[in-house]
Amino acid sequence: MDQRKIVACFIVNVWYLNIVTWLMMWFIKNHNLARRRNRQLALRNRTFVRRMVGLAYLDSIIGYDDVQCMNQIRMDRRTFHYLCQMLRDHGRVKLDGVLTMEEQVCMFLHILAHHVKNRTIGSRFCRSGETISRYFNSILHGVLRLQGTLLKVPEPIPNAYPDPKWSWFEVFFIFYKNYF
Asked: Per the structure, how many domains does the chain have?
């Protein structure tokens, strides 16, 4: 073989390797893009599913019957919706579109009723602990603004109370007041 044929074969082999290398790089790039696109779609679907799970849990508490509502938030559905309306109208609780008023109040009452942590409520309603904390404080401030409407000042019991059991309590209160 002469020198020209060897150089020509070498150049053809280099071009062939170049083309194969570029094709492999193109396939790897497209494969990585497809994997990234599938991962993004999976994350979007997972977020949608988490939102639906949280709404389903809320609906299981306040959507079906008063027994479940009383067991979970210690309030019947009519009173629950009345409280939500009062907080919306007079409690100055802002709705920012992330959580509905019913979801905020349900999380607030569930925490108070069962003395659970933000992490537990977050897993049940599929929300972060920071979101739970922020909306808990928002509803708490709304309830405190409604204290004049919601809380009643107790009436003092007169000394001549007609119930005979009261005299035993009166003795205890006098003892408690004098010694403690």
From this structure: 1
